[in-house]
């Protein structure tokens, strides 16, 4: 009985190593070969400005006049959806951004009524100033409202963002008083 128990114990202990690893006698530390290091590749020079912490930056004013508006990508977080919109003033005049208006449309282009709540200070942009409109809404994860296109008018610019489904709240996501909240902010000076 003792011999069979010792044999079983020896088999169990023998299985405690890692595959392909040799046993090292006591008193001899194992040799260590560090993994190869990979040198970072040089960063390519971007053709457009990199996104800031506030949202995507539009192209520069070199070939534009007026206000340039640029949507970022919809981001999902903890049941909410975020859609950043950046504004760059390329005119010589100070632009009062004002309160954005928003409309929702289904796949056939039929309007779907949306309410919007405005937050943030009034936004005025001087030449080459960048401002942001952060659109966000609660989502229940379903497409029951059928909104597939958002049309936003801000600072005299009409923009359209098409998505398969915006998953706008509804009766299961009553966290906000409005369907969409628009928070306006300025980019800090570099």
UniProtKB/TrEMBL annotation:
It comes from the Bacteria. Residues 21-59 are annotated as: Disordered. Residues 27-49 have a biased composition (Pro residues). This is Lipoprotein. It comes from Tessaracoccus flavescens. The lineage of its organism: Bacteria, Bacillati, Actinomycetota, Actinomycetes, Propionibacteriales.
């Amino acid at each position: 009985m003792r011999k069979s128990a010792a044999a079983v114990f020896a088999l169990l202990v023998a299985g405690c190593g890692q595959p392909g690893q040799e046993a090292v006698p006591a008193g001899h530390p194992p040799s260590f070969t560090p993994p190869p290091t990979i040198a970072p590749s040089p960063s390519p020079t971007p053709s457009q400005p990199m996104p800031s912490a506030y949202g995507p930056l539009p192209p520069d004013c070199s070939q534009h006049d007026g206000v340039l508006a640029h949507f970022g990508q919809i981001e999902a977080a903890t049941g909410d959806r975020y859609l950043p919109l950046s504004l760059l003033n390329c005119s010589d005049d100070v632009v009062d951004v004002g309160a954005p208006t928003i409309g929702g449309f289904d796949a056939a282009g039929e309007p779907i009524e949306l309410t919007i709540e405005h937050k943030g200070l009034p936004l005025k942009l001087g030449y080459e100033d960048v401002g942001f409109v952060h659109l966000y809404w609660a989502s229940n994860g379903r497409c029951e409202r059928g909104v597939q296109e958002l049309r936003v008018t801000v600072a005299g610019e009409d923009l359209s963002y098409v998505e398969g489904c915006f998953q706008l709240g509804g009766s299961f996501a009553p966290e906000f008083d409005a369907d969409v909240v628009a928070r306006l902010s300025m980019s800090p000076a570099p």
